[in-house]
Design goal:
With 416 residues, this protein is of the alpha/beta class. It has 2 domains: 153 residues, Nucleotidyltransferase, domain 5 (2-Layer Sandwich), CATH 3.30.420.40; 196 residues, Nucleotidyltransferase, domain 5. Helices cover 35% and strands 21% of the residues. The protein has 16 helices and 14 strands. A hairpin with a 7-residue loop joins strand 3 and strand 4. The longest helix is centred in the C-terminal third of the chain and has 24 residues. The chain starts with a strand and ends with a helix.
Length: 416
């Protein structure tokens, strides 16, 4: 029997909902997709596609929306109220709501959200304050207002549970580390799961014999080394802050830098609440850094096309950090790399960034085909590398919402 699955992806400034029809054990079929973004830079804007037909293309939302939960409720009401979307006529028609939860701690697989799971995720909120809190706000609403719907948490960290102990362990007092669960967890795992499976299929290889260097590049950016189909290392760590710089994140810096940056970094931020504790240090490094701090904009397309010195500096910094991870992962994989894969909004859209990165790591055997690289990305996986290169260079249009729905549909316990 087919069920309606809502894949809910609450980001720091947006909420996406993909609607799928799915039967147990089969690949889900998307029937609608909607998104509200601009929550941190009003006015919020709505996109809505039913099937392949665009209904809203980024119109301003007239009703008051100030939080991710407001955005979710607005879009849910719109989906239920759409007479052309016959599969959803009421809240009771939603069989499964699967929620992207960034930090899952030690959870290695998706979990049905019961009281124990929810309480555990609340404890982890301080480790991913930009994401977990907004996701759990929507979870609370679904539990209270959609009582017939099964809520499932799919974790960005679960893909990385295979990272070896010597890579995930920080060189600090291990008794304290174990007590406070201080280790590398890694994130963007839902995306990396989709990419690894899709690229293995594209290459015609068994996923267990596929090794990749993957770059998930967006306003939040990370890199991942995949060895024989499993995560071997990734750039993010205990929290999503470590690793590559992002739109407003610093990425990895000298740990003592923030104490020289301001005198009040140990105090709680005014943005903290009784249930969410954010220090000034976390606020500075998560929200007041990255390429926005260098250029004044979070729009990477503007940065990549500008000749301004500050924009060029931001572009060069990102390229340098990306290449450092590619080199490191190439060594840790002993050169056994099937492909370098670009993904995420920037990875998929910025041909200039792909060209520059590939050229800078050309000594490793990656070569770009400029004609292919300049083409619009039309498939799930597209080859942009030179035919005679030692290693493939690919672009993957990642789909976290599909991967979430697929994980729910292919697991009998989750689905039934």
């Amino acid at each position: 029997m087919a069920k309606i699955i809502l894949s809910i992806n609450a980001g720091s400034s947006s909420v996406k909902i993909s609607v799928f029809s799915a039967s147990q054990g089969r690949s889900p079929k998307q029937i609608a997709e909607t998104q509200i973004d601009g929550l941190t830079s009003p006015p919020p804007r709505l996109k809505y596609t039913r099937g392949s037909k665009p209904i809203h293309k980024g119109e301003e939302v007239s009703s008051k929306i100030s939080s991710q939960n407001d955005a979710f409720k607005h879009m849910l009401d719109m989906l239920i109220g759409d007479p052309e979307l016959s599969e959803i006529n009421s809240k009771e028609d939603v069989g499964i709501a699967c929620h992207r939860v960034v930090h899952g701690g030690d959870y290695e697989e998706p979990k049905i959200i019961d009281k124990e799971t929810y309480d555990h995720l609340e404890v982890l909120t301080d480790l991913a304050p930009l994401h977990n809190s907004s996701a759990l706000e929507i979870v609370r609403f679904c539990i209270s207002d959609l009582p017939h719907t099964r809520n499932i948490a799919v974790f960005d960290s679960q893909f990385h549970h295979t990272i070896p102990e010597h890579i995930r362990t920080y060189p600090i007092n291990q008794e304290i580390a174990r007590k406070n669960k201080l280790r590398k967890y890694g994130f963007h795992g839902i995306s990396y799961s989709f990419i690894t499976r899709s690229v293995a299929e594209f290459l015609g290889k068994d996923i267990g014999k596929t090794s990749l260097i993957i770059l998930h590049l967006g306003s939040g950016a990370s890199a991942c080394a995949v060895k024989d189909g499993k995560s071997w290392d990734t750039s993010m760590g205990l929290t999503p802050l470590a690793g590559l710089p992002g739109a407003t994140r610093s990425g990895s810096v000298d740990p003592s830098l923030v104490f020289h940056y301001a005198s009040d970094v140990g105090k709680l931020s005014p943005a903290s609440t009784s249930s969410l504790h954010i220090s000034r240090a976390e606020e500075i490094l998560n929200k007041e850094s990255g390429w926005k701090s260098l250029t004044g904009t979070t729009n990477f397309g503007t940065i990549a096309s500008s000749s301004e010195r500050s924009h060029k500096l931001a572009f060069d910094i990102l390229v340098d950090r990306i290449c450092s991870y590619i080199g490191s992962y190439y060594v840790t994989l002993h050169g056994n790399v099937d492909a370098l894969v670009f993904a995420g909004g920037i990875g998929e859209k910025s041909s200039k960034l792909r060209k520059r990165v590939t050229e800078d790591v050309g000594c490793l055997g990656f070569t770009i085909d400029e004609e292919e690289n300049d083409k619009e990305i039309s498939g799930i996986v597209q080859d942009v590398g030179a035919r005679d290169a030692r290693h493939r260079t690919l672009v993957c249009a990642t789909d976290e919402q599909f991967e979430m729905a697929r994980l729910c549909a292919t697991d009998e316990q989750l689905f039934s």
